[in-house]
């Protein structure tokens, strides 16, 4: 007998590492044994599990640092094992806190107190908000400057062609001394026709036509020929005979008066030449960007001049570079003599300049073109990759799975790090262990190895592998529906849409969580009443009792209680889907609160996540977890570790019939997929203008943004209204499990309740779905989050602007803070600009600068209307705007083929100022608002920012945490204790019983009354009408043993193994050709079996048939050998008013014929509780189950060695059963049934 409080749990804040699995030889699944074999379809049976460390698998890497670190734990007493939570947050200085103080130095605490900001945390949140807004303004200013100010700052005079006018560009221009002159109004001269010259080459140099003398060039003082050669024949020096020809120079001297007389105007623009034009023009060369027309010099000096370095350089360039740009800059700057000649040459022979842009204009143009290329590349890539994913990649994800005949690891095998015994060679969970579980309660007994009790074939009992064909294409799926204050129509529509999906009811479990005893605004019933009213409750569970669990909250709110209702949801199309409803009812001291039991949506999700995490790792369970475990097992016929995926749906969402199957097929197609979401459409799109502007936004966010992210496998936000997560994933060789959603690091970080900074609060309190996606991507960066367009749902969008404002405030702030964390994850898919990290960075910057972008867009449109673009560079911003807005319209047409969506796009574009300015600015200014605002209103609600209660400190010792085997041992003890109490009362009160007419005192919720009507008066159980005083079944155990009664109140008051109710369904079909199959029966024989039933009397155990040994069964076993109906339970029957099950008429008036034979009861330890396996569709025969719990024709047990006791798989009494006979030695049970000794 264990000592009192021997299994008191460790506190919930224990930081002890999880135990690691020891490697034991060949008793593990060895990856080498899973070599693909096309002929066999998988590895041979008998493969073992072997796990080893590796540096290449994502789940083996070092876990990232938590986003929200828990507060440091301090111990008041070093010898005490229970840590104490600090009373306040840690306000140690860090760089972010110092920066926030530096930014808000102008607002001391005294000033903030004048405006009502008095709490220290509130002041810090305000400072961080101002700092974040300042950062947003700075980023917006940078984007605005880069868009409109950079060009004017670096190129103040405008574009380069405003300084230069390219040769040949303007037909009514000519150039003089490098400047462009307009000749459109010029007078035609007798010897010079300006129009004819301009027609030959617009802008050509006519400087040589004007009269010039040596006195006009003071820079030319030497006697060298380049400086002294006459330019005109009339101005030549007398006595100087030139060897060449001098020009006539018919026009007057260069002066402003001459220009006025000729009526030509100087435009002040420089004549620009390209390098190609300089190369094509004879006698032109370039020195330091200045174009020189050397035609007068060459005409006057046709022959080379000896010992003249300048003449040699000029002729060398003109003769050797006739096909190039004739750049003589380096040649002239190499020697001092040629370099000194440059001022004279420039003044005498200047024709123009090379048409070039300034460095500032070049940088501005480079930035503009680079931005154009990057943005267009991103937009076009997103568009193209989204189309590819929608058309090709997603179609392969929804195909039915193949190769299901292969062997794989059994769901009952726990992953590495789970709590197990060192002797557990198979690595299976204790609830799947028949041999070890039967030892519970015995000295020295502990569940250390297992064979799945859910496997029909007992020959596979001790093997950790199974054929995946037994699970089939439909995985066991949980459909989580979180409810808060929704109305009956919303909740019923959501639940019935899940139940009506074309997914087997035997493979889906609807899990509804009611977040507190809450009545929505305008509703007549509370949300729990609405949900429970839809449930066809299973009567075996009775009225549930509140069970404690550790919730998400602060102080006293850290503890909560919930009631579990179990039954079925019957949809309109005939589906009968197993359902459990978790109603968070709160602690007794919350009875006067407005929202008792309310802890938020994240807490509702964590009830499921914590439960499956503890099931996966065999971790310590709360009373609520153990109660859920029992009810799920009875409803589904399998233990919860068989569930692999969970679909999370909001209570105002209706899913399409094919959606669940599509999502599961996607999970089956790729084991690396850890999350997948479907398309969410708006159900009330025409309700108001607010809903109309959201239609296009919903569509484009899925089919463009999420489809593009799916190519990288990194969807940054799986919407909480319709997403599926993987609970645990099989490895590539199907030889091990990798926990995903239930990984302890993920659950621990997602369940944080102590948050102190504004960043942490925005992560945790505003967007649970995005925060969960962020944690998954940080923990498993090489796994995939996908979007599946084939899976669809409809949800109710906000129809008033106030609700939309509140919703988008939460979404925008949550998006910014989560992207800030994702951009730091370096090992996401891709590299540099083609990486998911770059895409996240672009999304983060784009979200922050939304207000500036819409302002720039408006300015661009107005400026383009006033001043239309004249050049390509001026049209670049308009091209970007057209690409950003136009490509989504094309995507709509090619994906939906519905022109109506173009109209929804126009509604969205008209509301762009709301989307890009009003909503972001409002969200930024409310960075420190962590409430849900107007999204969900509750009758009489008082606004609260968090689920906490600072008046109390939760020390983690009020909620018992025990492993499953400990809870199960206590459950068995409780049943025996109740049996002893009943017998004790029978000794004192006789045969009148003590349960009462209503059976309210029954340990199973009063539902044993379905056996009434046999021997005693009304309300008496069958054992109450026994003959005699029961001296043969005395019990010397203590009725009120305090040692055994420690955990009794934490266990549900029902017995799921009660024989009065139908057995659980068959969770898995019998094995295929590789397993043990039964005899094939015809239709007539099958009908006869249905009439007579399938259960047979259990054989006498071999230990009981020993000669000379007497057998006196324990009193507890007498309950299993009572009068039972001959005709087995009919699923189409209904309970009668007396508690029985209606069906055929019977002499006792309870719809059932009774016979006096001992029948083994269904128990929760085995998923196979029916006599036959279900018939396959289209089959004309059925198989008689050979792996069940009955007996074979030779009287031997069908299961071989070891049978379950009457209390289930963990009953510690192996001596169960007997042979029925009418007379002989034995004891009576009050109805004429005798048990053989």
From TrEMBL:
InterPro entries: Chitin_synth (IPR004835), CHS4-like_dom (IPR054295), Cyt_B5-like_heme/steroid-bd (IPR001199), Nucleotide-diphossugar_trans (IPR029044). Residues 273-355 form the Cytochrome b5 heme-binding domain. Pfam families: Chitin_synth_2, CHS4. One of its GO terms (cellular component) is cell septum. One of its GO terms (molecular function) is chitin synthase activity. It catalyses: [(1->4)-N-acetyl-beta-D-glucosaminyl](n) + UDP-N-acetyl-alpha-D-glucosamine = [(1->4)-N-acetyl-beta-D-glucosaminyl](n+1) + UDP + H(+). CDD domains: Chitin_synth_C (cd04190). SUPFAM superfamilies: Nucleotide-diphospho-sugar transferases. This is chitin synthase. It comes from Dioszegia hungarica.
